[in-house]
């Protein structure tokens, strides 16, 4: 199973990133096919998260599932924005796939753990979201070679976007439901 191998390699790669081991790249396929693989795994994890969240009321219809998958995919856009804005502010060149592919696998883990925690302790998901700061800092340091303060800025911006973009989209798409001012 190629997808299972990619996922297990990503776990090993992330352990190495968190430890600061420079050989982490060997465990990620940092190419366009590697990006496609990470996206497939992300969408599958998002689908499972939707199914788990729907366990109380039943699985939504096809269009609602696609809508929810698109909403989950906004997290990837948040990472891209955080990565590109940080690189632009610092005027540094980075290899986008070096940051994006490990970040997608981190989001897969966040989806998996967050979905399970949300079933029993929804408030703990907030702590899990805050805990994303450390791996994002390490990712900025290891993949983009940013100094610690810049990596912290990347991590804070990305986590704020991870939370803020879906909320903003929800507000914009439901503007007709708001009471008139």
Offer a concise description of the structure.
By secondary structure, the protein is mainly α. Helices cover 77% and strands 0% of the residues. The radius of gyration is 17 Å and the shape is globular.
Secondary structure elements and pairings:
Layout: H1 2-19, H2 32-53, H3 62-90, H4 96-120, H5 124-131, H6 133-143, H7 148-173
Task: Describe the structure in your own words.
By secondary structure, this protein is mostly helical. The chain has 7 helices and no strands. Helix 3 crosses helix 4. The mean pLDDT is 92.
Keyword list:
single chain, 181 residues, 77% helix, mainly alpha
Q: What fraction of residues sit in β-strands?
A: under 5%
Major β-sheet, in short?
none
Question: What oligomeric state do these chains adopt?
Answer: single chain
State the share of residues found in helices, binned by percent.
over 70%
Structural class: mainly alpha
Task: Output the helix-strand order.
Answer: HHHHHHH
N/C terminus separation: 55 Å
Gross morphology? globular
Radius of gyration: 17 Å
Count of alpha and pi helical runs:
7
Q: Overall pLDDT, averaged?
A: 92
Number of strands: 0
Uncertain spans, ≥5 residues at pLDDT below 50?
none
